[in-house]
Amino acid sequence: MRRIAAQLARIAALSLLGTRFAAAMMLAPPVLNPTTYTSAVGRCTLSVEPSDLYGRGSALYRLTRDGETAWSGERPFTLWEAGVADDGTVAGYAYTHGWDGWRHKDGQESGAGALQIVILSPEGEERLSESVPRGDFYFDELPGPVANGIIFDTENDRFVARLRDPREEGERWHVYQLSTGKSLGILDPSEKLSVQVHGIVATAPVAGTPLTLVHWWGYIGARFMVMDAEMNPVWSLNLDRDYAIPGDEAAENRLRQRIEKRGAILPARASSQFDLHFVADKKRVTFSVRPDGKGGWAVAEIAREDYEDPGEAAVPPPVFPDRALPDLGQVSLGTAVPAAATPFRNIGGLELDGQGRICFLRSEPDGVPALVLVDTNGAVRREIPIELMRGRTNAEFSAFAWIGGERFVFAISGKGTGARAACAAADFATGAVTIFEGLDCPRVEQLAGYPDGGFVALTKDFRKYTITDGLYGFDAAGRTEWKIEKSGYRGEPGELLSPQDVTVDASGRIAVISTIRRNIQFYGRDGKFLHLLNLSNAWGRVPNYPTDVAADPGGGLIAYDFGGKPCIVRMDDEGAVVAQFDPAYPDGRKFAFHDGVRISPDGRYWTSDGHALLRLDESGVVDRVLGAAMDYDRLEDIGRVALDSEDRIFIFSGRSRAVHVFNPDGTRACIGRPDPGDQVAGDLVPTGKGDVFLSSAERRSEYLHFSESGERLGIEKLGLGGYGENIAFQPGTGDRWVVGHYDVTLVSPSGAVLRAISKRPDGSWLENPDTLSVAPDGSIAVAARGSHRDGGPNTINLYTAAGDPVRTIPLSESEGYMPLPVWNGRHLFLRVGDDIHVLDAAGQPVQKFKPGACSHGPFVAAQGHEVWVFDEGALTFRRYRAP
User: What range defines the domain where residue 835 resides?
Assistant: First the structure.
């Protein structure tokens, strides 16, 4: 069976900074929120108000001294990190093109820009403005240099910008005189060390001395050093396993992440002293630093006290009293036609036997799938429940294949690190299931069989830092005959690289299709590599994302190219294309098919849309259906469900791609039918006037419009051109809110921008807005994911109907990853697991309740006075009175 899974990539044994840089290019870039810096004794504060969420370009600054404004105004740079002295001197650094270096603004030169080091006088005048050009992107890291931090040492009139370039080892410290801006040179803090060190976690000047305290990373431990101005170490302490938690890897990883973020240098409480956190001992340890009378320094422990890591103190989740909402009855969609009762349902994959009979996998609500064998007329030979899956929540039915006669081999694979697989044979002649005892291999992704009972498995071995692809050959008793396993890649033609599927062709060759290499590798039955078929050369075009391959009983192969045009390609024994097409219904409408296309011994094509088995003619058009044919009047594969401001109900039927519209009492209003050529995605946007928009799968920001009677009105642009936009209409106005990547915009019916919201009510940038809920009074609630930079919580942000800020509500981790907010103008309703949590407009817990069967929702109804949930199985909405 086809499994399109994200390929994980981990790098083992990286230093702290290497990990940070590697991760940097995998995450969305961080934004720079408004920040206030305070001097050591609190005399001066500096506020920085960025003009741009990525910290590019200018910012507004305000320096206060003893509560009075000393200076304010705009400067052409935005400080990402800074220090302020008690006399008002400021020093820090900026990125002209943002932290990741590629987000230059309109009017800026292209490229990675520069890192700018700045020192300002107490009057706000520039003492230093030095630009360090940033180089090209290097591998998967940021363009260097990048600042790892600063050392703001007013006692010694010294400022240090700690820079790192991914093309060099370690940091380079750019040192300046604070009072003049003069450069004092560039130092390598590791140059004079006699021991190997990794990245620097944290630094701090030692008050009352010219020394600097450095916390070096040690993976599961730490090395602390006190260093003089020339980078000579004057004291060192190793805590080799201070961050190890034997037997609890998850807790150890959490601890290391906290240390990576904050370090273990604690604020000093006296001059000529420093304080360290000894994590394993749970102690705060104080050291004194004194001249030793010989021109050096003496460091000694002088105190030790209990210390509780503030990161370990669990924040208690909010308490929601269990209290049901008053039940107001239900709304049944009585005129909706439910899915037909048929053995052809919930189809997850199919394979053909030597006679052309079709074996398909059917999932069931109890978690026990069944293999079903039918002939080409639809007569059921036998159904075999896979009882081995009963009660197994940490395993899944992962693949099956024909192995001769009426027997099919199948695999049940574990999940997670180190997962293994079990294989068994289902015999449709007897109904028996026989486990292959002694078979041992990693998780099975795909299977392919021989008519004599032997089979091959495509495997993935998930380990902590690696994923190893494998190809195993088994005899008819399930004994391993050979295997190919390699976690590295050296470019050899027989190596496995992102293999997606495997089959055995009519001549007995094993064929493995690779997504990344865009080729098919052929192996003999003994596992020996034979040759390579380059699909770009064979097809005369570059494949898009080839994921499936199956054998043609008459010789050759048939492949599925996800997103390819066309997506199905049939080849002969030499790889020459003999047919290619996109499967479609007779009216030309495309459909989402499961598990590629198979070829029967009579040369006919078979596939499935998940609801029925479909036979295709030579051009890929459905000419026979085993099971229930698609019916516009039937709700099948229910996708999105929405209510408008007048409680009209809109349901997307995934199989037909139609929109079913019901009146508030559940009677059918109409069905919006797309044209055969419409490629729709299923997001529903009701306007509140009875009409509805349906998102396009291929046209960004464009939607298919249906009238209140279900008439197709055509494609219209609702969004602003961004990817992944969410849209909701403002009740009674025709205006619409558009949720983008970093803002929420109110757009008029003509497309004019009426209001753009780029900040949360608490003043931070509206980073990662996710979804939006519009209350009957027009006020809105915007859910936003937590910051990538500081790991802040997910939030819900409330605004008036005009877009004015009201309140930012941080969510507890107990609310889950990102619950969708439902807002009625007075209360928020969040679905958390099987419960619905209710919060008031201040974000305080009100109650929680369990609505019973709830496959969709909650929804606000009756002008905010009711809460509805939808039970997909019963085609019923349950109504509750809102608090």
Answer: 719-883
